[in-house]
Design a protein that fits this description.
Organism: Oceanobacillus polygoni
Keywords: RNA-binding, Transcription, Transcription antitermination, Transcription regulation
Family: Belongs to the NusB family.
Function: Involved in transcription antitermination. Required for transcription of ribosomal RNA (rRNA) genes. Binds specifically to the boxA antiterminator sequence of the ribosomal RNA (rrn) operons.
Distance between the termini: 31 Å
Number of helices: 7
InterPro entries: NusB-like_sf (IPR035926), NusB_fam (IPR011605), NusB_RsmB_TIM44 (IPR006027)
Radius of gyration: 13 Å
Largest sheet: none
Structural class: mainly alpha
Strand content: under 5%
């Protein structure tokens, strides 16, 4: 599985976990069973889930005139994935993580999502 596809799959699962009150471990296991075994996908999902509070703090510190609760679920989920990559996956260049996040935002969010995501992630990196 290509990393772009893995990010998309990770986004779908983490988005569902964000809006539903399911047991994360069970949902992850069920989701990953139905997908081909992909180490990157598994690392993203498990990493974001395990580091969620730290990631949310990093994102919150870099939001201007917003609280994390006010950020739409689509953008919040994408920001979590990208922030995890930026902080914990040193083998991925920052610009790749940001570009992938912007692309996901443009695909799944509204017409302003990509720009918003880019702005927040640029502050995190900067």
């Amino acid at each position: 599985m290509k990393r772009h596809t893995a990010r998309e799959k990770a986004f779908q699962l983490l988005f569902q976990l964000d809006i539903n009150d399911n047991d994360p471990n069970q949902a992850i296991e069920e989701f990953l069973e139905s997908e081909e075994r992909d180490a990157f996908l598994k690392a993203l999902v498990e990493g974001v889930t395990a580091q969620k509070s730290t990631i949310d703090s990093i994102i919150s510190e870099n939001l201007e005139n917003w609280t994390l609760n006010r950020v739409a679920s689509v953008e919040r989920t994408i920001l979590r994935i990208a922030t995890y990559e930026l902080r914990y996956m040193e083998d991925i260049p920052n610009n790749v993580s940001i570009n992938e996040a912007v692309e996901l935002g443009n695909t799944y969010g509204d017409d302003k999502s990509g720009k918003f995501i880019n702005g927040v992630l640029s502050k995190i990196v900067g």
